[in-house]
Amino acid sequence: MPATPPLPADPLIAPSRGRTRRTLLKAGGALLLSVLAPLPARAAQILAVRVWPADDYTRVTLENDADLKTSHFIVKDPERLVVDIEGLDLNPELKSLVAKIQSNDPYIRQVRVGQNRPGVVRLVFDLKEQIRPQVFTLAPVGEYKHRLIFDLYPVQEMDPLAAMIEKGEWSSDGVPVGQPQVAEQHPAPGLPLPDNRIPAPGVPSQAVPRPDIAKVEPRKPEPPKPNDKLVRMLTIALDPGHGGEDPGAIGGRGSREKDIVLAIAKRLKAKLEQHPNMRVMLTRDGDYFVPLNKRVEKARKVDADLFISIHADAFIKPTARGSSVFVLSEKGASSSAARWLANKENQADLIGGAQSGGADPQLASVLFDLSTTAQINDSMKVGKAVLQQIGGINTLHKNAVEQAGFAVLKAPDIPSILIETAFISNPEEEARLLDNNYQDQIADAIVKGIRAYFAKNPPLAKNRLT
Ligand SMILES: [Zn+2]
């Protein structure tokens, strides 16, 4: 744990008096004005400090009671990010940030906090490598007051395919003929799966035989040659909803949707990977937020054959219950409840916190319009197959696949479904969602649904890789 850093000795935090005076004398009117300007009647207070470290990026959130003005810059040798925040009181909550940086944070070595000059608090992030910072504010939403966000991205953004190859999770095409195909393959039901049986990164799993773990340089795999009589690998993108700043729905016992859906997704991943022709990409594998368009982008980068978003439902009335499956709709929602739910899920970016203008939404919508109907038709088939299996283990909220405008289902070329596994707002179903057995059952049901879909709709040879 980082000890209290020697703040006053650090010239970045507290410039020596002599230097301050010289700077002031040299400075033009602007700086003098800003120093002499009357301080606001009451300085802003930091209400909460949160840190979300992840391989994708580390986020630091300062929740406060006013919209804060900041400036930031990078200092080299060693690499540091310096942030000045105006009109802020240096309170114990803000100082607690120092102890919240974990030693295994991928990007931040430590942070130092101090009063830099009257009315200005300075944060210095000592970094482990060069980063690309995104600093932005978010207006109050839901339970949150104003938020000041620092997202520290690696200079070279993590490519999901390269990440899978690095972890040994990109098993390549090339299961020889004679190996059972998806359709005829024996399922592995009832195999006891201990919690989170995910091999540590870099450690090949003992339990999952992988004939061809790619220990190669990150690169796009070569598309199979047309006359290769091989079973094609299927890539499934699993998308645990919410994460990080966005807890999703919260149950009466305080359980959070983001934790439950991540646990279910990890079980599902392990079960799918027992099939030699399936590999799985998780859009997030930890407790951090991934913007909705980023989730779609990740699935497209690995050229996924299927996108499955996993959620837990909630309603004002605790009696609402049952599982549901949704696909996108071309025009309007299939019911007002579906529309309401899609609106709620689409708010994730506001709560989870996404800087606007990252992706190109216009390009996405053009691509999407070209292939909407085909995508929805395929998604409907997957949805029906999965819903039928889930119906065997839980009450269904509706007996049919529903449709609405979920942003996360808008991959133009990937069949995409969103599963509401059960109602976290229903006490009985909350208990089930927290139960290892139920998590296993729902994961098994989804695997069966996916396999039934591919059995009826055999995947074509890939020609989309270019
Ligand atoms: Zn959700």
Task: Describe what you observe in this structure.
With 466 residues, the chain is an alpha/beta fold. It has 2 domains: 46-154, Immunoglobulin-like (Sandwich); 234-456, Zn-dependent exopeptidases (Aminopeptidase, 3-Layer(aba) Sandwich), CATH 3.40.630. The chain has 12 helices and 14 strands. The strands form 3 sheets. Strands 10-9-11-14-12-13 form a 6-stranded mixed sheet, sandwiched between helices. Strands 1-2-8-7 form a 4-stranded antiparallel sheet, with no helix packed on it. A 4-stranded antiparallel sheet has the order 3-4-6-5, with no helix packed on it. Strand 7 (131-138) and strand 8 form a beta hairpin. Helix 6 (257-272) crosses helix 12 and helix 10 crosses helix 12. The protein is globular, with a radius of gyration of 25 Å. Residues 1-8, 18-34, 175-219 and 224-230 have low confidence and may be disordered.
Terminal-residue CA separation? 48 Å
Order of strands in the sheet with most strands: 10-9-11-14-12-13
In the CATH hierarchy, the architecture of the largest domain is: 3-Layer(aba) Sandwich
Reported for the largest beta sheet, the result is:
6 strands, mixed
EC number: 3.5.1.28
Family: Belongs to the N-acetylmuramoyl-L-alanine amidase 3 family.
Domain MurNAc-LAA: 296-451
Catalytic activity: Hydrolyzes the link between N-acetylmuramoyl residues and L-amino acid residues in certain cell-wall glycopeptides
